[in-house]
Task: structure prediction
Amino acid sequence: MTGQIVRRLLSLVPVLVVVGFVVFFLIHLAPGDPAAVMAGNEATTERIEQLRHEMGLDRPLWEQFVSWSTRALRGDLGTSFFLNQPVLTAIGERIEPTGLLTLYALIMSILIGFPAGIVAAVRRNSWIDRLTMVTALGGVCIPSFWLGILMILVLAVWARWLPAAGYAPFLDDPLQNFRYLVMPAFSLGLQQAALLARVVRSSMLEVMREDYVRTARAKGVAEGMVVLRHALPNAMIPALTIIGNSMGNLLGGAIVTEAVFNTPGVGRLVVQSVLRRDFPVIQGAVLVIAAVYVLVNLIVDIAYVIADPRIRLSTRS
Amino acid sequence: MAQTPAAQNSIHQGIRSRSSQFHWLWLLSKDSGAVIGGGVVVILALLGIVGPYLTGWDVMKVDPNNRLLGPSLQHLMGTDGFGRDVLTRVLFGARISLLVGLATMVFSTIIGATLGLIAGYVPKVDGFIMRIMDGFMAFPSILLAIAIMASLGPRTENVIVALTVVYLPRIARLVRGQVLVVRELLYVEAARVVGAGIWRIIFLHVLPNIISPLIVQGSFTFAFAVISEASLSYLGAGVPPEIPTWGNMLHEGVPLMAAAPWMSVFPGVTLAIAVLGLNLLGDGLRDSLDPRIQEH
Amino acid sequence: MSTPNAEKNLSRRRFLQIAAIASGGLTLAACAQPSPTPAAKAGTAPATAAPAAASAPTSGPVSGVAGATTGVKGGTLRLAIIGEPPSTDPHWTTANVTNSVTSHYCEPLFSLNSKLEMVPMLAEKLETSSDGLTRTVRLRKNVPFHNGEEMTADDVTASLTRWAKLSGIGKTMFELVEKMDAPDKYTVVFKMKKPYAVFETALGLRSQHAMIMPKKIVEAAGDKQLAEPIIGTGPYKFVEHIKDRHIRLARFEQYAARSEPTDGPSGKKNAYADEIRFLPTPDQSVRVAGVQSGDFDYAEGVNPDQYSLLKDNKQISTLISVPNKCPTHYINKKAPLMQDVKLRQAMLAALDMEAALKPAWGSPDFYVLSGACMPKEGPWYTNVGTEGYNQKNPDKAKQLLKESNYKGEPIRYLTNKEYPNMYQEAVVVNQALQGIGLNMKMEVVDWASVVARRAKPEEWEMFVTWNGYPTDPVLIDWMNPMYPGWWTGKIDELREQLLTTIDQKKRFAIFEDVQRLFYQEVPILKLGDVRDFHVTSTKLKDIYTYPCPMFWNAYLTK
Result:
C-alpha cells in the first residue's frame, strides 16, 4: 500500500502542472489590467504604464509564465500586486477562516445529515421520513447565497442572535470565532447535509435488507441494537465516500459563502483577486487549493481502505 | 445477437426480472416523484417559451417611473429596479436558465463521453487524458467557471462553454470507468476475437451500457448547471446582466431584499422549484434504470 | 417584511422548516406590500439627514459641525468601507478608498474648508509675488510627525518631489515649476514658469494627495510604495493593517492642531475617538446589516433604494452626503465616428436625464438635475449655456441625426457591474439612444476591463463613469486632454487661459465660456449631480462628508 500512496502523491505533480498552466493563461488572456486597477479611477495613462512596467507586465507572456512557474516549483509563489505581500503570506493569513469554516460545515453536515438519514431509514415511509427527505431535497435546491442572505436578515438583523459580519481569530476567542462562522458554516454545510442524509438513508435501507440483519432480528436482538451494531457500521462506507467528496465541494462552495458573509478567507481572496486582476494571488491560491483538494482525496481514500479492508487502494477511484 | 441493455445490466447488478428495453420508462412512470419532477420541468420550459408573450409586458423595456412596485393585479410579481415586470422576466428567465442547463448537459455529456470512451478504450492516451481531467477536477468548479468567464467575456454562449468545461471531466471519468468494466466482459472479448471492428464494438456493446448512468448523471448535471449559472450570475461573472436569468435577477434583487423582496423571492423560488424538479426526475431515473437501490 | 416567530430552543431540523416557511412568508409579505407611489417622498433639506443641524445649501457644503466642541472623547469607530484600498500610501493611487483612509493620518499643505475655499493646513501662509511667478509657502512651526521629528521645509520638498513623479496632477504642476527650494527651515519657494492659478488647489487636491511625510522615508521609498506604518502629521497614527480585514489607527496624542475652529476638513481636528478601524466589507447588504446588528458604527455606499425603508428605522441613522460627484458618460473623440458633432448633439437631445438617474440613484433625495459643470453649493456655479441639458426631445434628436453623417455604425458602450449605478444608468441611456435609431452595443465588463480598454482609443466609443468635483474647474478630469475622451480643440485655449489667469472674475468668465462649449460640442453626457447614501449607528455623530467621509471630529455618544 505504501507504494500506492507514493504513486498517488507523485500524481500530484502533473495535476498541478495542468492547473498552473490553465490558470496562468486563462487569467492573463482575460482583458483587464492590474496596473489600471491599482492606479485608481482617475489616473493617467502614463501612470498606468509606469505601474505596468514595475509589475513586469510588459514582458512577453511566455517569459512571464516561465518565470512564474520556475519560481513556483521552488515554493516561491511571488508577490501580490494589490496586497504588497508575498502570496504565500496572503494565503497563510486567510487559511484559518476558510479551514475552520469548512471544518464546521463538515461537522454540521455530519451532525445533521447522519441522524436525519438514520431516522428516516428506521422510520421508513412515515411522515418523518417524507419530511426529512423533502427537506433534504430542498437543501440541495436552494442557492446557498440566497439562504445566506436570508439567514443574515433573520438571525442577525431581526433577532440579533448572531453578528452580521466580522471575524475573530480562533486563538483569540474561540467562542466568538464560532459565532462569526456558524451562519456561513450552516449555509455551506446544508447542501452536504442534505446529500448525506439521502445517501445514509438509502444505504441503511439496503443494509437492513441484508441476510445478517434479518438473522439478528430473528435471533431476537432488539431493534435498536440491530441498527447500531449491525446495520450502521456497514452503512457507513458509502457515507464515507460522500463525506470524502464533501471536502472538495465544501472548498468550492466556501468561495461563494465567503463572498456573501464577508468571511476573510481564501475563497473571498480569490474572488477579489479576480476582480482586481491580482494575477500572482489568483495563480498561487488556485495551485494551493488544487493541491489541498488532491491531498484530501488521498487521505479520504486511505481512510476508506482502512474502514473496509475489502477495498484496494487504487490509483483511480 | 447481443443481449439487450437490460439483460446486460443484470450481469453487473445480479437482480433483474424483465427484459423489455423500455421497462425503465414504465418503472419511471410509477414513481410519483419523478413524474412530478419531470412535469414541473416541462411546464417551466413551456411557460418559458410561451409565457412572456402572454403577460403583455416587455421583458427589456425600462420604465423608471414605475420602478420597485410591489405585486399587484397589473404586475403579479411586482416590478424591478428599472420598472420591468418581474413575472415576465421570471418566465423569460426560465427559457434562458433551462437552455443554459440543457446545453451544458448535452455538450458536457457528448464531449465527456467521447473522451471517456477514447480513454477507456485506447490505453496509450488513457493516462494523458485522465491527468488533464484530474487537473480540471482539482479546481473548485465555481472558480474554474469564473476564470473561464473572465477570459472569454460575459456572453451566454461563454457560460455554456465554461460550465461544459467544468462538468465534462466527471462524465469522462464515469464513462471511462464503465468502458473499462465492459471491455473485460466475455462477449466483448468474443466479439473482438471474432474480428468485429472497433466501432461496431463501441456502438453495439459499450454504448448501451453507459447510456443509463449517463442519463442519470445528465439530469443531475442539468440541475447543477442551472444552479451554477445562478451562482455565476450572482457573483457577476455570468450571463450579461440585461438578459433575464434567475441568477441575474437574484444578483439585482438580493441587495434590495429588505426594500423590495419580490425581486429576489420569486426568481429564487422558481429556481428552487426547477432544480427540485430536475432532482426528482434524476432520482426517479436512477431508481428505475438500476432497480437495486444503489449509493452515489 | 414578515418574519416567523422563532422559539428559543430550535432544533436544527426545525430551523430548516422555519427557513423554508420564512421564504414562503416573504412571498406572502411581498404580495401584501402596498404599491408605493413612484414619485419620491418630499425630501427635507437633503444636505445632511442625521448628525447635527442642516442648513439649506447656500454657501458651501454643510458639515453639521460649524465649530462643534461638544464631542465625547473615547471609543472605537468601526467603519465598514466598500473595499480594501489598493494602497495606504497617499502618493500612490487616485482610488477614493485610499484618499479617505490616508487623510486621517497624513495632511497636505492646503485644505478645503466648508465653503469650498482652499485654506492653509500644514502651511501657515502663502505669499504670491505681484507677477504671480513666485510662490512662497511659510510653514507652521513645531508640527510633529508620528515618529517625533518635526516637519520642516526639507520634508515638504522631498514629499512634493515624489508626489510630482507619481501623480498626474503633480506632473502637470511641476512642469510649470522652474525651481523649488527651501531657503530656511520653515520656508519653501516655488519659482513658476507661468502664473499657475490652481497652486493651492493642486497641492490640496483630495485625489492622490500631496501629503507631507518625512524626507528620509520618502526618499528611501523612491518610486516604490511606502512601507507601513505610514508616517504623517495627522490626528491619527497608523497602528496595524491586515489586508482585507482591517486598518487600525489610534489617536496621535502629540498632534499639533490648528487653532481655528473646525470648518469642514480644515481648522481644528479634535480626534475624539481613541481608535478608528476601517473594515473592508465589499457586500453592501452585509455593511448595512452590520450597522443594524450593532457590529459596525458606519456603512458607506448603501443602495439608495433602501432609503425609504431605512429612514424610519429607529436603530440607525441615515446620512445623505452633499452632492460631490456627477455621473458622466464619456464619448471617445479620437474615434472617427464620434467626431461628428451633430451625432453627439443628437445623443444629448434624446436623453431624459431623470429617467436615467432614477434606477441608479433612487429618488430626488439622491440626485440633482443640474446641467452645470460645477456643483450648486460652490462658488463656480452658473447656469450659462446649459439649455442643452435634459431636453427629452427624441424628435429633435432624430432630426439632428439625419443631419449628421451617421450611417448605422455600431457604437460600443462600456459599462460595468461593480458600480451598480453605472450599469443602471447605462441601461436607460442605451435604450434611449437605441430609440432614436443608434446602433448601440452595450458591453458590461468588469471595472478592471473598463479601465484597461478606455485607455485605447480603438476599443470603445462610449464608457460610463462618474467624476468627483475638484474645487477648481481646471482640475476636472475631462479638462485634462490626456484623460480618456480626449477633448481637444477650442477647449485647449480656454484651458490654458483658465490655468494661467489669476484674477477670479476673469476666470469665472472663462469658465462660463467652457460651459457653453461643453454644451455645444457635447464631449460628454453629464447626467446630473449625485449624493452618496451612508448609514450610521444612532450613537455616531459629526461626520463630515465632503468630498469624502471624514471622522477625525466624529464621536460616539454613550
Chain A touches chain B through 54 residues (CB under 8 Å).
